[in-house]
């Protein structure tokens, strides 16, 4: 084996510049950001954009009951609300709720059907009143409640469930949904030939029954897993989805994967900006359709996460890398003019942002993906000025960047930079970094650089992750635990700023 000295000579490296551990460098990246918002900046971002969804079979675990509210969850949710200055919006539904039945005389929250497995999606739950009490536990949350629709002939029970939900939701109802992922009904709980016109007709039958019982409500409809015509948003609206002008949003769902992904594919599947761009390009069509034909109805991604296959794969879906994926997904959704993203939560699913209760031998915990919520909430902020976002279009798989404009006309105020190169701290080696040379074209003098960081992308212990130096834990009841500051300050001269971001790290640059 040649000596290190010989190697250096052979590769022509200069001895004087070598540090004992050679840090891998990456080509410098450059971007120019106009000082005022360009024409292709996003629409104004709703402060409620970073939203949540609870699967029906986990809802009561996240909220707790009237007798025992889950204050851990309450603090984690309030952390987001405090940063955006908006209510957190939570959608409660999914397949388990669609196939559930309200049991008025049942005094426990949930009775699972026989054969239900931990981490699975039960079909045939019975929900008692204690389940519905959870809606009253987070009084500052705005709720979207899904009425069950899978069993078409169970309409009176579905209406009774709405009544029970409204009792606890009170004025905090944002919308009702009728059914979940209706595009997947044909050949499952509806005949093979079930079509969009039949769906719209049955939807109106349910909506009529709800209106007769409780008066006019606002709806989120349709609720589709995918946007594949004939079960697509355009066709459903053309068939009369909004004929009564009571639809306030339309919903699609998205998961990056629907099957096992090995750890060796974390870089290519999740820490990959191009893959997010590819997978979400299909949303441009429904966003454009609604804008042109129903400009008051936004498209929401009302159930989103990394992988529907999410049992016992915390090493793939429950890591710091997963938080970085979620930040990039949420940021890119803003660029696409998605009105809101509800990040799906389900107890025992590896992608969850937190485990609200002890489950299957695992203690309650903040989980790594949680950190994406306060990060994105801080990007939006709680100011009064209108916020718009641009994609820096770096055309890189492993690096993404966004400009944040505030006010009208929008002024460049913040920049998000994500270094998505996977760094695994357990395999050792120096951590690579990438430097971004920014031309800001603005009069900014100072840059504050705040970090979302951890020892490596593989980290599963959320107390080792920090955002601006803060960490969140179950031991702190979901309140921020301040740690050593990771914030840097730099001066901007002549509109030029260079920012170095380590592999597997995100930063928020705030200009002043
Ligand atoms: C949210 O802000 C309020 C008002 O400043 C504060 O009392 C509360 O503790 C904050 N909540 C959390 C979870 O930090
Ligand atoms: C559907 O609902 C009807 C009416 O409540 C009930 O009789 C029937 O058993 C339900 N079907 C299933 C599969 O649960
Ligand atoms: C990122 O994903 C795209 C597919 O969307 C793929 O072509 C590319 O190879 C991936 N990049 C990496 C670094 O794995
Ligand atoms: C990190 O490396 C360890 C040790 O080789 C391995 O067990 C783990 O799966 C890796 N994680 C990721 C996300 O690469």
Keywords summarizing the entry:
512 residues, alpha/beta, Immunoglobulin-like, TIM Barrel, 2 domains, 8-stranded parallel sheet, 7-stranded antiparallel sheet, 14 helices, 25 strands, disordered N terminus, binds 2-acetamido-2-deoxy-beta-D-glucopyranose
Low-confidence stretches: 1-20
Rg is 24 Å
Mean pLDDT, all residues: 95
Beta-strand content estimate: 25-35%
Q: What is the third-level CATH name, the topology of the largest domain?
A: TIM Barrel
The number of helical segments is 14
Q: How does the overall form come out from the CA principal axes?
A: globular
Termini separation: 54 Å
What small molecules does this complex bind?
Answer: 2-acetamido-2-deoxy-beta-D-glucopyranose
> Which bin fits the share of residues in helices?
10-25%
User: What's the β-strand tally?
Assistant: 25
Domain Beta-glucuronidase C-terminal: 401-508
Signal peptide: 1-18
Keywords: Signal
Protein name: Beta-glucuronidase C-terminal domain-containing protein
Q: What does this protein structure show overall?
A:
There is one protein chain. This protein has 512 residues and is α/β, with parallel strands linked by helices. The chain folds into two domains: 143 residues, Sandwich (Immunoglobulin-like); 331 residues, TIM Barrel, CATH 3.20.20. It has 14 helices and 25 strands. The chain has an eight-stranded parallel sheet with strand order 8-7-3-2-12-11-10-9. Strands 15, 16, 17, 19, 20, 23 and 25 form a seven-stranded antiparallel sheet that branches. The chain has a three-stranded mixed sheet with strand order 1-18-24, with no helix packed on it. Helix 6 links the parallel strand 7 and strand 8. Helix 3 packs parallel to helix 14, helix 10 crosses helix 13 and helix 13 runs parallel beside helix 14. It is globular. The N terminus is likely disordered. It binds 2-acetamido-2-deoxy-beta-D-glucopyranose (4 copies). The site of one 2-acetamido-2-deoxy-beta-D-glucopyranose has 10 residues, from loops. This is Beta-glucuronidase C-terminal domain-containing protein. It comes from Zasmidium cellare (Wine cellar mold).
């Amino acid at each position: 084996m040649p000596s290190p000295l010989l190697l250096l000579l052979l590769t022509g490296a200069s001895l004087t510049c070598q540090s004992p551990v050679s840090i891998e460098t990456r080509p410098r990246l450059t971007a120019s950001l106009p000082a005022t918002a360009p024409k292709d900046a996003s629409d104004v971002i709703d402060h409620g954009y970073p939203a949540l969804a609870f699967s029906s079979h986990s809802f009561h675990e996240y909220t707790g009951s009237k007798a025992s509210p889950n204050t851990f969850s309450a603090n984690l949710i309030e952390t987001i609300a405090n940063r955006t200055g908006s209510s957190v919006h939570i959608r409660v539904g999914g397949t388990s709720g669609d196939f559930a039945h309200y049991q008025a005389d049942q005094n426990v929250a949930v009775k699972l059907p026989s054969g239900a497995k931990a981490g699975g999606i039960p079909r045939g739950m019975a929900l008692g009143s204690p389940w519905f009490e959870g809606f009253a536990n987070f009084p500052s949350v705005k709720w979207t409640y899904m009425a069950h629709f899978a069993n078409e002939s169970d309409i009176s029970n579905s209406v009774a469930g709405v009544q029970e939900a409204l009792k606890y939701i009170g004025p905090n109802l944002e919308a009702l949904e009728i059914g979940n992922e209706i595009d997947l009904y044909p050949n499952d709980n509806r005949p093979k030939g079930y079509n969009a016109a039949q769906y719209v007709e049955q939807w109106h039958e349910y909506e009529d029954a709800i209106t007769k019982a409780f008066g006019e409500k606002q709806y989120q409809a349709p609720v589709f897993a995918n946007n594949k015509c004939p079960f697509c948003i355009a066709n459903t609206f053309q068939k009369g989805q909004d004929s009564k002008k009571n639809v306030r949003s339309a919903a699609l769902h998205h998961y990056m994967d629907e099957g096992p992904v090995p750890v060796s594919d974390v870089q290519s599947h999740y820490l990959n900006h191009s893959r997010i761009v590819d997978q979400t390009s299909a949303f441009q069509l429904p966003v454009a359709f609604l804008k042109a034909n129903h400009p008051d109805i936004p498209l929401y991604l009302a159930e989103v996460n990394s992988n529907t296959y999410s049992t016992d794969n915390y090493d793939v879906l429950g890591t710091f890398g997963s938080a970085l994926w979620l930040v990039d997904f949420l940021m890119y959704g803003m660029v696409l003019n998605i009105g809101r993203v509800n990040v799906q939560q389900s107890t025992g699913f590896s992608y969850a942002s937190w485990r609200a209760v002890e489950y299957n031998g695992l203690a309650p915990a903040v989980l790594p993906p949680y950190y994406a919520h306060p990060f994105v909430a801080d990007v939006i902020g709680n100011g009064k000025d209108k916020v718009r976002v641009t994609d820096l279009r770096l055309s890189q798989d492993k690096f993404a960047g966004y400009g944040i404009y505030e006010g009208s006309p929008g002024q460049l105020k913040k920049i998000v930079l994500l270094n998505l190169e996977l760094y695994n701290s357990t395999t050792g080696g120096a951590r690579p970094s990438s430097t971004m040379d920014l031309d800001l074209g603005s009069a900014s003098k100072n840059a504050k650089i705040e970090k979302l960081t951890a020892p490596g992308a593989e980290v599963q212990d959320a107390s080792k992750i920090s955002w601006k130096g803060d960490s969140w834990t179950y031991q702190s009841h979901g309140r921020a635990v301040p740690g050593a500051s990771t914030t840097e300050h730099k001066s901007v001269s002549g509109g030029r700023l260079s920012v170095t971001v380590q592999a597997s790290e995100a930063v928020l640059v705030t200009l002043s």
